[in-house]
Design brief:
Elements (H helix, E strand, L loop, with lengths): L1 H82 L4 E9 L2 E10 L7 E3 L7 H18 L8 E4 L7 H18 L3 E4 L3 H5 L4 E7 L2 E7 L11
Parallel strand pairs: 4-5
Antiparallel strand pairs: 1-2, 2-3, 6-7
Helix pairs in contact: 1-2, 1-3
Length: 226
């Protein structure tokens, strides 16, 4: 009898151990299923994020390409307005260290047949750089979002442009002010630029003081302002 009882107790212990292990197995299976679901969700979220990243990249690339074309077109128009049709502004976009970078070039045949591309500072002197800088300011000002209100303020614009083309710069500025409906305020020593102003003032140094008078063909005489 003692042996039978011993076997019964051992069997009961095994049954209890089995049920415990069965319960643990069920818990582990539930945990496994939960982790699988989390993994599937994480994979789905990763795939979604990858798709969004690709979409953003495509959108960013598209936006950059649109901006490149707009800037190239407007700056080219400015160059051709001032110097003639044999100039074209080019922008090359490249990725460097994970960031987009832009290089500027001016394309011209220089009266020949072959198109030559140079950096702005190497293309027909500093006057080209001045006109490009002026046009870029206008492009950025007009394309800014939210819009930037107020006048375009320029300090000695196109000071490296030769006298031959200075009047063209003046006419370009006047036309830009009309098209964009924006006032232009500038400081200049160039009489051709000053000559297209609706209102001009002359600043002269007299006895250590700045004396401001109205310049140009305007009715009346201005009283000096100090």
């Amino acid at each position: 009898m003692a042996e039978v009882e011993k076997v019964r107790r051992a069997l009961a212990d095994l049954q209890a151990l089995y049920h415990r292990r069965r319960g643990q197995q069920e818990q582990l299976l539930k945990e496994e299923q939960r982790l699988k679901e989390q993994l599937e969700q994480a994979i789905a979220e990763r795939d979604l994020l990858d798709q969004v990243r690709v979409l953003f990249q495509m959108t960013s690339d598209h936006a950059r390409e649109q901006a490149r074309r707009t800037i190239e077109s407007m700056v080219t128009r400015a160059l051709q307005y001032v110097f003639g049709a044999d100039l074209e502004f080019k922008i090359r976009l490249e990725e460097a260290r994970g960031r987009p970078e832009a290089e500027f070039y001016v394309a011209s045949t220089y009266g020949g047949e072959e198109v030559v591309e140079n950096r702005p500072q190497d293309a027909r002197g500093g006057g080209v750089v001045d006109v490009i800088s002026l046009a870029l300011r206008l492009v950025l000002l007009q394309s800014s979002r939210p819009p930037i209100q107020g006048p375009l303020i320029l300090d000695e614009p196109a000071k490296h442009v030769s006298e031959e083309f200075a009047l063209n710069v003046a006419e370009f500025l006047k036309e830009a002010a009309r098209v964009f409906d924006r006032q232009v305020v500038m400081v200049t020593h160039n009489h051709q630029l000053a000559g297209i102003a609706d209102r001009a003032f002359r600043v002269e140094l007299e006895a250590g003081k700045s004396v401001v008078t109205v310049a140009g063909n305007y009715p009346g005489n201005a009283s000096p302002e100090q």
